[in-house]
Amino acid sequence: MSKLKKIAPRAQMEKAITIFKQHGGILRTTQAIRLGVHPSVLYAMRNSGDLEQVSRGIYRLADTPPLGDPDLVIVATRVPKGVICLISALSFHELTTQIPHEIHLALPRGAEEPRLAHPPVKTYRFDKRAFREGVETHILDGVRVKIYDPEKTIADCFKFRNRIGLDTAVEAVRLYRERRRVDADRLMRYAAICRIEKVIRPYLEVLL
């Protein structure tokens, strides 16, 4: 058995550590290999404790601070094409009193269903325009996480009201009015994209 398989040379490990630090300290296995980390080095660092496995196929530097938003970070890392939506996005923007027990994730129609053992993920399929509009990128724990902005999230909640509950959407509008500067034009533009102008307008007129 080669020395590489027993223990990775320190120079290769240092190179790998640098690569991880350049990407927020966390990478998928395929990312790490593509960036130049040899698989044997990756697994040797896991075995030595330099890396910790936070989910299947995801590693992070062991000496970095604990993740502040581990579920969002793991999902964003494992499913980079997805966008955090609905109740998970409401929670991020502090527009719900609910505590989400799964990550709500938007995917374009035709995308493969993600295979994650943890955290639990609930997916929603969006058409092309609705999927790409209103996406913000937030850096959480050094990782780029895509989340719909507050107004798009509210429109989406009315769009999927039969799946998440109309009361959730109405509460989001109320909290939006109380906690943020209201942008009714932006809300109605997203409502048009989601084709729910007639549904949302009465609630906006009463609450806003």
Can you describe this structure?
The protein is of the alpha+beta class and 208 residues long. The protein folds into 2 domains: 3-61, no CATH class; 70-207, Beta Polymerase, domain 2, CATH 3.30.460. Helices cover 50% and strands 18% of the residues. The protein contains 12 helices and 8 strands. A 3-stranded antiparallel beta sheet has the order 1-3-2. Helix 8 crosses helix 11. The chain is elongated and about 65 Å long.
Question: C-alpha Rg, in Å?
Answer: 20 Å
CATH class of the largest domain: Alpha Beta
The unreliable regions are 1-6
Tell me the distance between the termini.
Answer: 70 Å
Oligomeric category: single chain
Number of domains: 2
Shape: elongated
Cross-sheet strand order for the largest sheet = 1-3-2
Q: CATH topology of the largest domain, anyone?
A: Beta Polymerase, domain 2
List how many beta strands DSSP finds.
8
Structure annotation, total helices: 12
The CATH architecture designation of the largest domain is 2-Layer Sandwich
Percent helix, as a range, is: 40-55%
Following the backbone from N to C, one meets helices and strands in this order, namely: HHEHHEEHEHEEHEEHHHHH
Overall pLDDT, averaged?
Answer: 89
Characterize the main sheet: 3 strands, antiparallel
Strand content: 15-25%
> Structural class, from helix and strand content?
alpha+beta
